[in-house]
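Input/output pair, single chain:
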Amino acid sequence: MQAQTNAIAAAESPDHRPHAKHDRIIAYAKTIPPAATIVAYPCDETSLRGPVEAAEAGIIVPVFVGPADKIAAVARAHKLDISGFQVVDAPSPEATATLAVEMINQSKGELLMKGSLHTDELMRAVTASKTGLRTSRRISHVFIMDVPTYPETLFITAAAINIFPDLDAKRDIVQNAIDLFVAAGLGTPRVAILSAVETVTLKIPSTIDAAALCKMADRGQITGGILDGPLAFDNAIDMEAAKIKGIKSEVAGRAQILVVPDLEAGNMLAKNLAYLTKADSAGLVLGARVPIVLTSRADSVRTRMASCAAAAILAHARRKSTALPAA
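Output:
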Protein backbone atom coordinates (compact mmCIF):
# COMPACT_ATOMS: atom_id res chain seq x y z
CA MET A 1 0.00 0.00 0.00
CA GLN A 2 2.91 2.35 0.79
CA ALA A 3 4.38 1.81 -2.68
CA GLN A 4 0.97 2.58 -4.21
CA THR A 5 0.65 5.75 -2.14
CA ASN A 6 4.13 6.92 -3.08
CA ALA A 7 3.55 6.24 -6.77
CA ILE A 8 0.27 8.13 -7.04
CA ALA A 9 0.91 10.81 -4.44
CA ALA A 10 3.75 11.99 -6.65
CA ALA A 11 0.98 13.41 -8.81
CA GLU A 12 0.52 16.06 -6.15
CA SER A 13 4.13 17.33 -6.43
CA PRO A 14 4.67 20.51 -8.43
CA ASP A 15 4.71 19.72 -12.14
CA HIS A 16 3.15 22.13 -14.55
CA ARG A 17 3.39 20.02 -17.69
CA PRO A 18 -0.09 19.65 -19.19
CA HIS A 19 -1.81 16.53 -17.89
CA ALA A 20 1.19 15.34 -15.84
CA LYS A 21 -1.15 14.10 -13.11
CA HIS A 22 -2.99 11.75 -15.45
CA ASP A 23 0.35 10.58 -16.81
CA ARG A 24 1.29 9.41 -13.33
CA ILE A 25 -2.01 7.58 -12.83
CA ILE A 26 -1.44 5.80 -16.14
CA ALA A 27 2.14 5.01 -15.14
CA TYR A 28 1.02 3.49 -11.85
CA ALA A 29 -1.65 1.38 -13.56
CA LYS A 30 1.07 -0.15 -15.72
CA THR A 31 2.76 -1.54 -12.59
CA ILE A 32 -0.21 -3.62 -11.38
CA PRO A 33 -1.83 -6.72 -12.91
CA PRO A 34 -4.08 -5.80 -15.87
CA ALA A 35 -7.81 -5.92 -15.29
CA ALA A 36 -10.09 -8.14 -17.38
CA THR A 37 -12.36 -5.64 -19.11
CA ILE A 38 -15.62 -6.21 -20.98
CA VAL A 39 -15.74 -3.63 -23.78
CA ALA A 40 -19.30 -3.13 -25.02
CA TYR A 41 -19.80 -2.32 -28.71
CA PRO A 42 -16.39 -0.93 -29.78
CA CYS A 43 -17.60 -0.15 -33.30
CA ASP A 44 -15.69 3.00 -34.21
CA GLU A 45 -12.01 3.90 -34.23
CA THR A 46 -11.78 5.71 -30.89
CA SER A 47 -13.79 3.16 -28.91
CA LEU A 48 -11.68 0.31 -30.31
CA ARG A 49 -8.30 2.04 -30.32
CA GLY A 50 -8.65 3.13 -26.66
CA PRO A 51 -8.87 -0.38 -25.16
CA VAL A 52 -6.34 -1.77 -27.66
CA GLU A 53 -3.76 0.81 -26.61
CA ALA A 54 -4.64 0.31 -22.93
CA ALA A 55 -4.04 -3.41 -23.45
CA GLU A 56 -0.72 -2.76 -25.19
CA ALA A 57 0.25 -0.64 -22.17
CA GLY A 58 -0.55 -3.56 -19.86
CA ILE A 59 -3.44 -1.81 -18.11
CA ILE A 60 -6.35 -4.05 -19.18
CA VAL A 61 -7.09 -7.33 -20.93
CA PRO A 62 -10.09 -6.50 -23.13
CA VAL A 63 -12.89 -8.78 -24.25
CA PHE A 64 -14.74 -7.14 -27.12
CA VAL A 65 -18.50 -7.68 -27.19
CA GLY A 66 -20.59 -6.63 -30.20
CA PRO A 67 -21.11 -7.45 -33.88
CA ALA A 68 -17.94 -9.40 -34.67
CA ASP A 69 -17.92 -8.51 -38.38
CA LYS A 70 -18.24 -4.80 -37.64
CA ILE A 71 -15.52 -4.86 -34.98
CA ALA A 72 -13.20 -6.69 -37.38
CA ALA A 73 -13.95 -4.18 -40.13
CA VAL A 74 -13.10 -1.23 -37.87
CA ALA A 75 -9.86 -2.95 -36.85
CA ARG A 76 -8.87 -3.52 -40.48
CA ALA A 77 -9.79 0.00 -41.57
CA HIS A 78 -7.63 1.57 -38.85
CA LYS A 79 -4.83 -1.02 -38.79
CA LEU A 80 -5.55 -2.21 -35.24
CA ASP A 81 -4.36 -5.71 -34.36
CA ILE A 82 -7.07 -7.44 -32.30
CA SER A 83 -6.02 -10.98 -33.18
CA GLY A 84 -4.87 -11.64 -29.63
CA PHE A 85 -8.15 -10.62 -28.01
CA GLN A 86 -11.43 -12.45 -27.52
CA VAL A 87 -14.40 -11.16 -29.51
CA VAL A 88 -17.89 -12.21 -28.40
CA ASP A 89 -20.53 -11.71 -31.06
CA ALA A 90 -23.72 -9.76 -30.31
CA PRO A 91 -25.98 -8.41 -33.05
CA SER A 92 -27.08 -5.00 -31.75
CA PRO A 93 -26.27 -2.35 -29.14
CA GLU A 94 -29.11 -3.56 -26.90
CA ALA A 95 -28.04 -7.20 -27.14
CA THR A 96 -24.43 -6.15 -26.56
CA ALA A 97 -25.28 -4.25 -23.37
CA THR A 98 -27.30 -7.17 -22.01
CA LEU A 99 -24.56 -9.69 -22.80
CA ALA A 100 -21.77 -7.47 -21.42
CA VAL A 101 -23.60 -7.11 -18.09
CA GLU A 102 -24.30 -10.84 -18.02
CA MET A 103 -20.58 -11.54 -18.50
CA ILE A 104 -19.75 -9.26 -15.56
CA ASN A 105 -22.28 -11.14 -13.42
CA GLN A 106 -20.57 -14.36 -14.48
CA SER A 107 -17.25 -12.93 -13.18
CA LYS A 108 -15.71 -12.80 -16.63
CA GLY A 109 -14.57 -9.22 -16.17
CA GLU A 110 -13.48 -6.81 -13.43
CA LEU A 111 -14.36 -3.69 -15.42
CA LEU A 112 -17.06 -2.69 -17.88
CA MET A 113 -16.18 -0.23 -20.63
CA LYS A 114 -18.60 1.63 -22.89
CA GLY A 115 -17.82 1.56 -26.60
CA SER A 116 -19.72 3.46 -29.28
CA LEU A 117 -23.23 2.61 -28.14
CA HIS A 118 -25.32 5.27 -26.40
CA THR A 119 -24.90 5.72 -22.66
CA ASP A 120 -28.58 5.05 -21.94
CA GLU A 121 -28.40 1.74 -23.85
CA LEU A 122 -25.59 0.51 -21.60
CA MET A 123 -26.95 1.97 -18.37
CA ARG A 124 -30.38 0.40 -18.93
CA ALA A 125 -28.71 -3.00 -18.73
CA VAL A 126 -26.51 -1.94 -15.80
CA THR A 127 -29.47 -0.70 -13.73
CA ALA A 128 -31.95 -3.48 -14.58
CA SER A 129 -33.52 -4.55 -11.30
CA LYS A 130 -33.09 -8.32 -11.68
CA THR A 131 -30.15 -8.77 -14.05
CA GLY A 132 -28.13 -5.57 -13.65
CA LEU A 133 -25.12 -4.56 -11.58
CA ARG A 134 -26.76 -2.58 -8.79
CA THR A 135 -25.49 -2.75 -5.22
CA SER A 136 -26.78 -1.14 -2.02
CA ARG A 137 -25.01 2.05 -3.14
CA ARG A 138 -26.45 4.64 -5.49
CA ILE A 139 -24.68 4.52 -8.85
CA SER A 140 -22.84 7.78 -9.55
CA HIS A 141 -20.30 9.34 -11.89
CA VAL A 142 -16.93 10.92 -11.11
CA PHE A 143 -14.79 13.06 -13.40
CA ILE A 144 -11.07 12.83 -12.62
CA MET A 145 -9.82 16.20 -13.86
CA ASP A 146 -6.21 16.99 -14.66
CA VAL A 147 -6.44 20.80 -14.62
CA PRO A 148 -3.16 22.42 -15.75
CA THR A 149 -3.80 25.50 -13.59
CA TYR A 150 -4.58 23.54 -10.40
CA PRO A 151 -1.84 21.79 -8.42
CA GLU A 152 -3.74 18.63 -7.51
CA THR A 153 -5.87 15.96 -9.12
CA LEU A 154 -9.46 17.24 -8.97
CA PHE A 155 -12.50 14.97 -8.70
CA ILE A 156 -15.90 16.37 -9.74
CA THR A 157 -19.08 14.52 -8.84
CA ALA A 158 -21.68 14.04 -10.08
CA ALA A 159 -21.92 15.44 -13.60
CA ALA A 160 -23.79 12.46 -15.05
CA ILE A 161 -26.34 9.76 -14.11
CA ASN A 162 -28.07 11.58 -11.21
CA ILE A 163 -29.99 14.66 -12.37
CA PHE A 164 -31.35 16.09 -9.11
CA PRO A 165 -30.05 13.81 -6.32
CA ASP A 166 -31.69 13.93 -2.90
CA LEU A 167 -29.73 13.87 0.35
CA ASP A 168 -29.51 10.06 0.54
CA ALA A 169 -28.24 9.91 -3.03
CA LYS A 170 -25.71 12.65 -2.31
CA ARG A 171 -24.39 10.65 0.62
CA ASP A 172 -23.60 7.76 -1.72
CA ILE A 173 -22.22 10.11 -4.39
CA VAL A 174 -19.78 11.55 -1.85
CA GLN A 175 -18.82 8.14 -0.47
CA ASN A 176 -18.23 6.69 -3.94
CA ALA A 177 -15.85 9.54 -4.80
CA ILE A 178 -13.98 9.24 -1.51
CA ASP A 179 -13.56 5.50 -1.96
CA LEU A 180 -12.09 5.99 -5.45
CA PHE A 181 -9.73 8.71 -4.22
CA VAL A 182 -8.46 6.54 -1.38
CA ALA A 183 -8.16 3.42 -3.57
CA ALA A 184 -6.04 5.44 -6.01
CA GLY A 185 -3.51 6.00 -3.25
CA LEU A 186 -4.09 9.75 -3.12
CA GLY A 187 -4.57 9.81 0.65
CA THR A 188 -7.44 11.34 2.63
CA PRO A 189 -9.38 13.70 0.36
CA ARG A 190 -10.51 17.21 1.16
CA VAL A 191 -14.14 17.30 0.02
CA ALA A 192 -15.91 20.57 -0.78
CA ILE A 193 -19.70 20.48 -0.94
CA LEU A 194 -20.44 23.24 -3.42
CA SER A 195 -23.26 25.77 -3.59
CA ALA A 196 -23.61 29.36 -4.76
CA VAL A 197 -22.69 30.72 -1.32
CA GLU A 198 -20.79 29.57 1.75
CA THR A 199 -23.54 30.23 4.30
CA VAL A 200 -26.52 28.03 5.10
CA THR A 201 -29.82 29.52 3.96
CA LEU A 202 -33.32 28.19 3.40
CA LYS A 203 -33.47 30.14 0.15
CA ILE A 204 -30.82 27.84 -1.43
CA PRO A 205 -31.63 24.18 -0.65
CA SER A 206 -28.18 22.93 -1.69
CA THR A 207 -26.65 24.81 1.25
CA ILE A 208 -28.84 22.81 3.63
CA ASP A 209 -27.83 19.53 1.97
CA ALA A 210 -24.17 20.58 2.25
CA ALA A 211 -24.50 21.23 5.97
CA ALA A 212 -26.30 17.92 6.45
CA LEU A 213 -23.61 16.00 4.57
CA CYS A 214 -20.92 17.52 6.76
CA LYS A 215 -22.84 16.50 9.88
CA MET A 216 -23.30 13.00 8.43
CA ALA A 217 -19.50 12.81 8.15
CA ASP A 218 -19.21 13.90 11.78
CA ARG A 219 -21.53 11.03 12.74
CA GLY A 220 -19.70 8.39 10.69
CA GLN A 221 -22.34 8.10 7.96
CA ILE A 222 -19.68 9.22 5.47
CA THR A 223 -16.13 8.03 6.08
CA GLY A 224 -12.63 8.41 4.71
CA GLY A 225 -12.65 12.11 3.81
CA ILE A 226 -12.60 15.60 5.33
CA LEU A 227 -15.80 17.44 4.40
CA ASP A 228 -16.70 21.11 4.44
CA GLY A 229 -19.65 22.96 3.00
CA PRO A 230 -21.44 24.80 1.78
CA LEU A 231 -18.54 26.37 -0.11
CA ALA A 232 -18.76 28.54 -3.20
CA PHE A 233 -16.46 27.42 -6.02
CA ASP A 234 -13.99 30.27 -5.55
CA ASN A 235 -13.37 29.67 -1.87
CA ALA A 236 -13.23 25.92 -2.40
CA ILE A 237 -10.26 26.09 -4.76
CA ASP A 238 -8.55 29.44 -4.04
CA MET A 239 -6.84 30.16 -0.71
CA GLU A 240 -7.00 33.92 -1.16
CA ALA A 241 -10.75 33.82 -1.83
CA ALA A 242 -11.27 31.71 1.29
CA LYS A 243 -9.12 34.12 3.33
CA ILE A 244 -11.06 37.16 2.12
CA LYS A 245 -14.32 35.48 3.16
CA GLY A 246 -12.83 34.61 6.56
CA ILE A 247 -13.31 30.87 6.03
CA LYS A 248 -11.06 28.70 8.14
CA SER A 249 -11.09 25.00 7.36
CA GLU A 250 -8.89 22.16 6.16
CA VAL A 251 -10.79 22.08 2.87
CA ALA A 252 -11.33 25.69 1.81
CA GLY A 253 -8.90 26.87 -0.85
CA ARG A 254 -7.44 23.44 -1.56
CA ALA A 255 -10.29 21.03 -2.22
CA GLN A 256 -9.58 17.76 -4.01
CA ILE A 257 -13.16 16.53 -4.47
CA LEU A 258 -15.86 18.96 -5.59
CA VAL A 259 -19.42 17.77 -4.96
CA VAL A 260 -21.91 19.73 -7.07
CA PRO A 261 -25.62 20.24 -6.24
CA ASP A 262 -26.96 18.57 -9.39
CA LEU A 263 -26.09 17.24 -12.83
CA GLU A 264 -26.52 20.59 -14.58
CA ALA A 265 -24.01 22.31 -12.31
CA GLY A 266 -21.54 19.44 -12.59
CA ASN A 267 -21.81 19.18 -16.36
CA MET A 268 -21.23 22.90 -16.83
CA LEU A 269 -18.32 22.96 -14.35
CA ALA A 270 -16.54 20.01 -15.96
CA LYS A 271 -16.99 21.39 -19.47
CA ASN A 272 -15.85 24.86 -18.42
CA LEU A 273 -12.63 23.35 -17.07
CA ALA A 274 -12.19 21.18 -20.15
CA TYR A 275 -12.61 23.97 -22.68
CA LEU A 276 -11.34 27.06 -20.85
CA THR A 277 -8.34 25.53 -19.04
CA LYS A 278 -7.77 22.58 -21.41
CA ALA A 279 -8.26 20.17 -18.53
CA ASP A 280 -8.11 16.46 -19.32
CA SER A 281 -11.07 14.57 -17.86
CA ALA A 282 -11.13 10.86 -17.24
CA GLY A 283 -14.44 9.46 -16.01
CA LEU A 284 -15.84 6.50 -14.12
CA VAL A 285 -19.21 5.25 -12.96
CA LEU A 286 -19.09 3.94 -9.39
CA GLY A 287 -21.48 2.18 -7.04
CA ALA A 288 -22.10 -0.79 -9.35
CA ARG A 289 -20.61 -4.25 -8.91
CA VAL A 290 -17.60 -3.18 -10.97
CA PRO A 291 -16.18 0.18 -12.07
CA ILE A 292 -17.63 1.32 -15.39
CA VAL A 293 -15.58 3.33 -17.87
CA LEU A 294 -18.32 5.56 -19.25
CA THR A 295 -16.59 7.56 -21.96
CA SER A 296 -18.07 10.10 -24.33
CA ARG A 297 -17.95 9.60 -28.06
CA ALA A 298 -15.98 12.87 -28.17
CA ASP A 299 -13.29 11.59 -25.79
CA SER A 300 -9.77 11.19 -27.08
CA VAL A 301 -7.96 7.87 -26.99
CA ARG A 302 -5.72 9.27 -24.24
CA THR A 303 -8.71 10.20 -22.09
CA ARG A 304 -10.00 6.65 -22.45
CA MET A 305 -6.56 5.41 -21.41
CA ALA A 306 -6.65 7.52 -18.23
CA SER A 307 -10.17 6.30 -17.45
CA CYS A 308 -9.05 2.69 -17.92
CA ALA A 309 -6.07 3.33 -15.65
CA ALA A 310 -8.21 4.75 -12.83
CA ALA A 311 -10.69 1.89 -13.14
CA ALA A 312 -7.90 -0.71 -13.14
CA ILE A 313 -6.40 0.84 -9.99
CA LEU A 314 -9.78 0.62 -8.25
CA ALA A 315 -10.25 -2.97 -9.41
CA HIS A 316 -6.78 -3.81 -8.07
CA ALA A 317 -7.63 -2.26 -4.70
CA ARG A 318 -10.84 -4.31 -4.54
CA ARG A 319 -8.94 -7.43 -5.57
CA LYS A 320 -6.50 -6.96 -2.70
CA SER A 321 -9.23 -6.18 -0.16
CA THR A 322 -11.09 -9.41 -0.94
CA ALA A 323 -8.01 -11.65 -1.11
CA LEU A 324 -8.05 -14.48 1.40
CA PRO A 325 -5.26 -14.41 4.03
CA ALA A 326 -2.46 -16.90 3.60
CA ALA A 327 -2.98 -20.21 5.36
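DSSP finds twelve helices and eleven strands in the chain. The chain has two domains: 32-134+303-322, 135-287.
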